[in-house]
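Narrative of activities, Objective 1.

The group set out to show that a structural description can be obtained from nothing but a protein's sequence at a throughput compatible with the screening campaign. Below is one input-output pair from the validation batch, recorded exactly as produced.
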Amino acid sequence: MTLQNRMNGNISLELQAILEDNGDFVIYGCDRGPKNEMGDRFEYIWEFTVKLEHVPEVLALLGGTDGDELLEIIERHWKQIEGSRLEEKIRKSGIPFRLDIDGK
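Output recorded for this entry:
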């Protein structure tokens, strides 16, 4: 699901939230910066991952209960809000996560 896809001048930000086949919850982000004098665009891609065993904690944090679908809760209550605030809320909650960043 797309959480965010916006331009700020010549910089774009895309955020996607998915449940992986293994049950992990991942927020994928891609920031594309301005082009340099060679025409190359700086970008970095990051993955914010909550492992399957902690997904019920994320569901509860976002107001869901057993039987609710995490992506449906996000669609209803978080998609309208800037997507990065969702990642920030999870990070500040103490729920374990992994953050991988790849910059080019």
